[in-house]
Design a protein that fits this description.
elongated; 20 strands; about 400 residues; metal-binding; Diaminopimelate Epimerase, Chain A, domain 1; binds zinc ion; 7 helices; alpha+beta; tRNA_SAD; Elongation Factor Tu (Ef-tu), domain 3; zinc; 3 domains; Threonyl-tRNA Synthetase, Chain A, domain 2; five-stranded mixed beta sheet; Thr/Ala-tRNA-synth_IIc_edit
Length: about 400
């Protein structure tokens, strides 16, 4: 059965910040969570892209926390509790209070959505298809295949100028004639009892949410990401204290990076680019040096184990790392009679790497070795008959392999 609850949260003239008295009209749970129904409430139920209110309820010495507010399809409003209320609360008048911190955050974020949507409309003629507001992220979806950085910057600047101008925000409940005369940015999604939000000198839109009383309360609006979704562009942004928290976090990261790289923050990008170039050049140098070293080592090994007519020569050797091991295996097996087994030093995961390869005349199957002897020794990996590689326990000595 639906409970009617007077939605005081829709009355912009009533003060939602004060504790209010209300009668408990029901104790029906919401999705197996304990909840209360009231005769009247200032708790806003989740809807219109805005999260439900939290707060507290008190009866005598007993107190419960309202963790969320929801409304079902029948219009029954649920004040969801951290812990079930005693059955004798039914019919009693208790004191309730909305969590102001959470509500202000929601109002700032939601009013910020209005303002940023109005700014994209004003500066680029773009319509907002929908909006989402969560505990961590705020976003609007613009009807456009893409929006360039310049357009985003222009809209953000416009929105922040409106914040600084502190335009009053008003709620209207117009009759059909008044509604027809209002310059609505978009048509209402519902019919009858249309509620219209006016941002003075900026925007008229139908909306049933909760809002700040002036744009100055929204605080700085800051776009953090753009995401293309089918034919829409999702703009993620912060406002108010969320902007401050985001910028504080960025500041801490930049400070840490500038300390690590021993340069000032404005020089960070150049410094990182320099280090990348330097590291690329060093990797190339290292690659050349390793090839040189492997070539020298392969020559030495070939000399100590010369080819013998009609025989396969096994060369078992250790190498510093996988790059060197691959190079050495290639160079060793350039001689047709050689089977090379090159094991590296132990890596971070506690295993050594091993490269097994054969020359063009050698009778050996490198891939099959992993399935046979390798497997019995705890090696994992595989490949072709000519060349295979994988991991092998550190305790396995390369000198005893394939004997
Ligand atoms: Zn709204």
């Amino acid at each position: 059965m639906a409970h009617f609850c007077e939605p005081c949260y829709l009355d912009p003239t009533a003060d939602w910040r004060q504790p209010f008295e209300t009668r408990v009209a029901g104790l029906e749970p919401f999705a197996d969570r304990p909840a209360l129904q009231f005769d009247r409430t200032f708790f806003y139920p989740e809807g219109g892209g805005q999260l439900g209110d939290a707060g507290t309820v008190r009866f005598g010495a007993e107190e419960r926390t309202v963790v969320d507010t929801q409304i079902d399809d029948n219009g029954t409003l649920y004040h969801i509790l951290n812990e079930a209320a005693p059955a004798d609360w039914l019919g009693q008048t208790l004191s309730a209070q909305v969590n102001a911190e959470h509500r202000r955050d929601m109002m700032r974020a939601h009013s910020g959505q209005h303002l940023l949507s109005a700014a994209f409309h004003h500066t680029a003629g773009l319509e907002t298809k929908s909006a989402r507001l969560g505990k961590r992220t705020i976003s609007i979806d613009l009807e456009a295949p893409d929006v360039n950085e310049k357009s985003i910057a222009a809209a953000v600047e416009q929105a922040n100028r409106w914040v600084l101008a502190n335009h009053p925000i008003r709620v209207h409940n117009p009759d059909p004639d008044q509604l027809a005369a209002m310059p609505l940015r978009r048509p209402p999604k519902v019919t009858g009892n249309i509620r219209v939000l006016e941002i003075d000198s900026v925007d008229f839109t139908p909306c049933g949410g909760t809002h700040c009383s002036a744009t100055g309360e929204i605080g700085a609006i800051h776009v953090v990401a753009k995401e293309k979704i089918k034919k829409l562009v999702r703009i993620h942004f912060h406002c108010g204290l969320r902007t401050l928290a985001h910028l504080d976090q960025r500041e801490a990261i930049l400070t840490a990076a500038s300390n690590h790289l021993q340069c000032a923050v404005p020089e960070l990008a150049d410094q990182v680019q320099r280090l990348q170039q330097e590291s690329r050049a060093l990797r190339q140098e290292l690659g050349k040096a390793r090839t040189e070293a492997a070539r020298y080592e392969a020559e030495q090994l070939h000399q100590t184990q010369p080819a013998r007519e009609g025989e396969t020569t096994f060369i078992r050797v250790e190498s510093a790392d996988i790059d060197s091991a691959r190079k050495l295996a290639d160079l060793l097996t350039a001689r047709p009679d050689v089977v090379a087994m090159v094991k590296t030093k132990v890596a971070d995961d506690g295993f050594c790497r091993i490269v097994v390869a054969r020359g063009s005349q050698a009778e050996f199957d490198a891939g099959a070795w992993f399935r046979g002897e390798g497997k019995s020794l705890g090696a994992r990996g595989g490949g072709r008959p000519q060349k295979a590689e994988g991991k092998i326990p550190e305790t396995v000595a390369v000198d005893n392999l394939a004997k």
